[in-house]
Design goal:
Elements (H helix, E strand, L loop, with lengths): L4 E11 L2 E9 L5 E8 L3 E9 L5 E10 L4 E5 L2 E3 L7 H13 L1 E13 L8 E12 L6 H6 L1 E6 H10 L5 H14 L2
Parallel strand pairs: 4-9
Antiparallel strand pairs: 1-2, 2-3, 4-5, 4-7, 5-6, 5-10, 8-9
Helix pairs in contact: 3-4
Length: 184
């Protein structure tokens, strides 16, 4: 089977963790074309759940202002892979602590999602954290300083996905995957 070949790569702009890249490609039939996209170091997202006194799962979420939307977004704790040499699990646990004040020793992989493969290589490693314990918060920046922690029954969070109240892609995929695993 023939493959696409990148024949040239040019970084047009770099900022913080991202690069705007323009590359030239050759298709399997020899057609040459150019695409511009964003390179990202990737991110992690973590679905923190705990059992309430009634034995039902609760999910811990954050509501954070997002400048690109000029609105608040209901999300799972998440963050960029912005610490050199830090593995995805450590990043997810760090973000969990920073944003919610919880940690967990029972963490399971929920796999990877691609956020927008038509415009970026950004991949998100998703995790499920079960059995939470409290630790100090360590928030960074004005958005996180204003962030609220909100706790929902897992069943309610799934319904909120169905109604569109939860529309953040990481949260939707993470919660649905966590729900499926926890109900097996």
């Amino acid at each position: 089977m023939a493959h696409f070949e990148r024949t040239k790569r040019t970084v047009l702009h770099e900022w913080v963790l991202w690069k705007l890249v323009q590359s030239r490609f050759r298709s399997p039939v020899g057609e040459e074309f150019v695409r511009t996209y964003v390179e990202s170091p990737g991110a992690t997202g973590i679905v923190p759940v705990r059992l309430n006194p009634d034995g039902k799962y609760e999910v811990v979420m954050v509501r954070q202002y997002r400048p690109a939307l000029d609105a608040y977004s209901l999300e799972i704790p998440a963050g960029m892979r912005d610490v050199a040499g830090e593995d995805a699990l450590s990043t997810a646990l760090r973000e969990l602590q920073e944003e919610t004040g919880f940690t967990s020793t029972d963490v399971r992989s929920l796999g990877q999602i691609l956020q927008a493969p038509g415009i970026t290589n950004a991949a998100v490693q998703l995790f499920l954290a079960v059995g939470l314990s409290e630790v100090p918060l360590s928030r960074h920046g004005p958005e996180e300083d204003d962030m609220s922690v909100e706790i929902f029954l897992l069943d309610d969070a799934v319904r909120m996905i169905e109604t569109g109240e939860i529309d953040n892609a990481m949260a939707v995929v993470g919660i649905l995957r966590a729900d499926r695993i926890l109900k097996q």
